[in-house]
């Protein structure tokens, strides 16, 4: 067992930064209980809809909740969960193990999301087990420990609903509310307010994902957290050339979880959560089902508000005008027509607020005249902000990252970590991704897209 990644910053948030490396391996590689914490650990059962199909055979098959700790800053309870720690009662045919590369990949993606300011679970540790796992190429095995606001999923509710365990469903609801919506804990009738809170968090989360070009790739109901964090980094990836139909996952042949489908799929999942809550709705309220349907339908409105807000900020705007969305959509159309790199385009647009726009023009080919027309409209709109251009640029820079985890760079870092046991590139990539909104000159090589051929061939896998 060799410690491969030790996230001291995440550890500090739960007071674990003083552990020695040996203690670190003892706790997070061999699961010696942390003082006063869960003993024995807890594997959770859940169900879920995977690619629309109901699966009643899910659960922590290769992980468990190892400890629960309070976050110093907020006092909220966090779960320390494992992945790749061996078989549990819910492993069925699986070996309960994980390979090193996908665990390092989850670490990169989670840290990148965290630095981007997007709610996410984070890797606390990746420890090489010293054994090889039975997958293609016999890769080295590893254990990941992640920190999560909780591991309650839409599928956790589906589990009790499917089994018609109403008392347990109520207890789960109370537990989830106490953890994620304590302000609602005193209400006698919680299901609808809780559903609204989950819808709001997901609407915000998906808008943030889309604002940085993130594609989760496997938004099954067992991978949607009640807390509103991004969870389960499997076939996820960041889009490069802008196209809402972009999908990387090798198993998503229909493009169900494509970039632009994400709001609709989130809403579909929330409808499953609503159904799971039906047994605990107030039976005396004859309109209750209709009200639940309205909450789910209201997701689209919530998402639209957050997405419009994201786009406005991405254009450097803070005031609200009715035509802002059309202005933003027209820019996205331009990007789509030439599959322009999403991240570069918005960053160079931000730079063009106070500087020259030649580099932005260089991203385009035949659409350059259309871009010039659009830029003129945008500058007219910006003139009505009543703010300095410096302030508008600051708005844009704060949401348009300079660096994201580009697929070819992530792959390069992982292959050197696994094939050559050299973690240098992995660590350099993590460092660069830790300050995504700053223009750091030395990080410029990380801002370059892959060649179109490499990008088009990129495929991601579930990492099981
Ligand atoms: P995931 O892709 O990690 O979200 O897992 C989906 C389901 O498959 C969950 O029920 C997991 O517990 C289970 N699973 C995934 N990989 C393994 C494995 N190597 N061994 C046992 N169960 C697994
Ligand atoms: Mg999962």
Task: Give a description of the structure.
- With about 475 residues, this protein is α+β, with helices and mostly antiparallel strands.
- About 45% of the residues lie in helices and about 10% in strands.
- The chain has 16 helices and nine strands.
- The strands form three sheets. Strands 1-6-7-5-4 form a five-stranded antiparallel β-sheet, sandwiched between helices. It has a two-stranded antiparallel sheet with strand order 2-3.
- Strand 4 and strand 5 form a beta hairpin.
- The protein is globular and about 65 Å long.
- The model has no long low-confidence stretch (mean pLDDT about 95).
- The structure holds adenosine monophosphate and magnesium ion (MG).
- The site of magnesium ion has 3 residues, from loops.
Low-confidence stretches: none
Output the strand order for the largest sheet.
Answer: 1-6-7-5-4
Ligands in the model, by name, code or SMILES, are: adenosine monophosphate, magnesium ion
The helix fraction, in percent, is 40-55%
Radius of gyration: 23 Å
Give a short synopsis of this structure.
This protein has 464 residues and is an alpha+beta fold. The protein has helices spanning 8-13, 21-28, 100-116, 154-162, 166-180, 191-211, 262-277, 288-314, 324-338, 342-354, 358-362, 368-383, 389-399, 407-419, 424-433, 452-457; strands at 2-6, 45-50, 53-59, 65-70, 77-83, 122-132, 140-148, 214-215, 237-238. β2 and β3 (53-59) form a beta hairpin.
